[in-house]
Amino acid sequence: MKFALIGCGRIAASHLKAALENQLEIAALCDLDPQAIRNLRREFGLEGEQGIREYADYRQMLREIPDLDLAAVTTASGLHAQMTLDCIDAGVHVIVEKPMTLDLAQADEIIRRSEEAGVWVCACHQNRFNLAVQKMRAALEEGRFGKLSHGSVQVLWHRSQEYYRQADWRGSWAKDGGCLMNQCLHGIDLLLWMMGGRAVEVCGMLANRFHPEIEAEDLGMALVRFEGGETALIEGTTNVYPENLEERLSLFGQAGTARLGGKSANKIKEWQFADPRPGDEETRFFEEETDSVYGNGHQALYADMIGAIRENRPPYVDARAGRAAVELILAIYKSARTGRPVSLPLGDFSAKEMEGFRP
């Protein structure tokens, strides 16, 4: 299966590693900066691989490799949607980095055109594949929590001013959004997934406390109400001193309580259920080793996407999941801007509509 990587920046190594681990044929690497391509090739010992073509123009790449099967879009956030649409139009399946888009109309267009073309789009929410997350999800599907009360996610990270200065798109409303859209989307996706994904009302607040060089928030908080009456709390920030602290996901039910923590929700910190089962004691202290906030889920996400293509079935994390997470964050943004609770479904809204708003 032929694979191309569009964007060779910060997260690209995780994608290339997963592609190689899944025995994909690396057909092309694409980036505006040829040095970024060279650095990535050197990191993976691919300097001498003559079959890997290099491009600065991804559209040219799509034209010149007509038998391409799968592409990963790992560029600046504001470019994801159009690149994904261009891949769909070329008949190429797509793994698109988060956020899938910053505009709900574009998200709907991705879903519509991919379904019409018979092309699968996978939103790269790799933390769903974390082993601790999978254990929580299994307990939920088995009904061990009983009736849910509420849940929460806290993404407590650090980003320096230098991080934001490295690329002019970071922290801009039109091209990125703030910490909720960039750093916290994975955690918000997990919360939505665990709560059933049926948010109906959001009340959000944003602030920019330590990063005046960006337009958007470095701190975001929200209360969310779900269709079944459950509620949730969201807290996301890049203001934690002096380094990333933790990503926490908690779920509280009438018959069970579970909380995940660690760098990428990779560790079980609380595991209590009214129906004790064999293995619960071991699970209570479970930790999946990882040295990165990105976790270990890329390999499994790629394996699933390859299976989806071969079996002609939806991927585990599809474009609708990508849209749902973006919609909730945009609803938080709209609530913060208007100073009022916002009802969902949101309708057409984009991060660009936040321009001029200073948190």
Q: In summary, what is this structure?
A:
With 359 residues, this protein is α/β, with parallel strands linked by helices. The chain is 32% helix and 23% strand.
What does this structure look like?
- The protein has 359 residues and is of the alpha/beta class.
- It folds into two domains: 2-125, Rossmann fold; 127-297 and 324-354, 2-Layer Sandwich (Dihydrodipicolinate Reductase, domain 2), CATH 3.30.360.10.
- The protein is built from eleven helices and 14 strands.
- The protein has helices spanning 12-21, 34-43, 58-64, 80-89, 104-117, 131-141, 161-165, 185-195, 280-283, 298-311, 319-338, and strands spanning 2-6, 25-30, 53-55, 70-73, 93-96, 121-123, 148-156, 199-207, 219-226, 231-237, 246-253, 256-261, 267-273, 342-343.
- The strands form two sheets. Strands 13-12-11-7-10-9-8-14 form an eight-stranded mixed beta sheet. A six-stranded parallel beta sheet has the order 3-2-1-4-5-6, with helices on both faces.
- The longest helix is centred in the last third of the chain and has 20 residues, at 319-338.
- The chain is globular.
- 48% of the residues are buried.
